[in-house]
Amino acid sequence: MDFNQLITTVNDALWTYVLIGALIGCGLWFTWKTRFVQFRMVGEMFRLLTDSAVYTSSGVKHITSFQAFAVSVATRVGTGNLAGVATAIAVGGPGAVFWMWVIALIGSATAFVESTLAQLYKLPNKDSFIGGPAYYIQRGLHKRWMAVLFAILITCQFGLSNNSIQANTICGAMQEAFGIAPLWMGCFLVAISLIIVFGGIQRIARVSAVLVPLMAVGYVILALVVLAMNIDLIPHVFKVIVLDAFGFEQVAGGGLGAAMMNGIKRGLFSNEAGEGSAPNVAATASVSHPVKQGLIQALGVFTDTLLVCSCTAFIILISGLYQVPELNGITLTQSALQSEVGASGPVFVAIAIFLFAFSSIIGNYYYGEANIRFITRNSQLSTLNSQLIMTLYRLFSGGVMVMFGAMASLELVWNIVDFFMAFLTACNLVAIVLLGRYAFRLLDDYRRQKRQGIKEPVFHRSQLPEIEHELECWE
């Protein structure tokens, strides 16, 4: 058994017997305890996108709600939306799309809880706040070992292996559309990635705030045009998705399990709800109440899966090319679009995947940076050693792993990502289940203030006296 086969076997066992049940169970629990926050407060989510920046007394401008939303969507909206959806359909059938929707609808409540906790336990930093699961695990659960474990896992998952996926998909799309060799495309990606990642979160936020709306709106418009051209096929597409998700043939042949597993795996890779990634950037925002970023990040899950992923799925299913065994990943998406809009389809997808995946590379890098800073923050390392570690990480994240992804096989990079994603998600779910009660109380407080006519609810740490000493912000 070679390495690929071994890691595939381990991944299948982890996802089949552990992660699928945990993700659905936690999502349903959080949905119930928050009284269906992801459905009842959609209007408030959109309103909060215009929440203005807050300035400190020293005049330092922190990250706005929209910028935090843009960075988190930048990592969500990427390879998973174009190549990941295609892979899920190719392997699990059209029914995988249904399970992607399910994990998004219930997972948005999980995203609300984890991002609200990240805001609650955030710490002040030089040019923005800093926080995430590692911080709420240490300060909320008082388990340093578990916090360090999470920090290591998320750095391996996002800062390293996820970036190889993005680079692999960009290179595949560019080779298909323009004939550019992966080696040269990889060199180009390394150069521009390093320029961005050495600029820090402020530059990442500014770049993402431009790229994310541009790429998302352009891709959705094209998808809507394709759907309008095939409006008579939409009912058939929905029928295929639902029947394949619950059909008797799938149950008898084991296809139902494949559809569920691949839909949930690729759905989680895309929207990241419960994985513990988005809370790292949610913590950077300067807001008046932790619930604001919880709502913003719940909206991010909807934006990613119900909008962008669905666009890709409908284009592929309308084309019918998902039944061609030779097509998979980004080449399936490119071929499907070509069948609908002509020779310009693969070119558009190549450009779109470049914007989608490159914005993910720079966003993924920040998740690793935040967690490396967590590990070194209270360690015995000197300032010089800490800076050296950060420099090496930047070189590996924006350089080595990007080039590795450009040259490695599609199967290998996906297997590595699935492996780390399973352990990372399990670690984070344990933490947010144990700390979730604080997110529920914060939501009750936010709703109470809104009922009193307060447009911008405010939180003070004295409102949670039992953990007030654990909170460094919210004075």
Description:
It contains 19 helices and 2 strands. With 475 residues, it is an all-alpha fold. The longest helix is centred in the C-terminal third of the chain and has 42 residues, at 410-451. Strand 1 (123-124) and strand 2 (129-130) form a beta hairpin. Strands 1-2 form a two-stranded antiparallel sheet.
Give the number of DSSP strands: 2
Helical element count? Answer: 19
Tell me roughly what share of residues is in helical segments: over 70%
Taking all residues together, what is the mean pLDDT?
80
Shape type: globular
List keywords for this structure.
19 helices; 1% strand; 77% helix; mainly alpha; single chain; two-stranded antiparallel ribbon; 475 residues; 2 strands
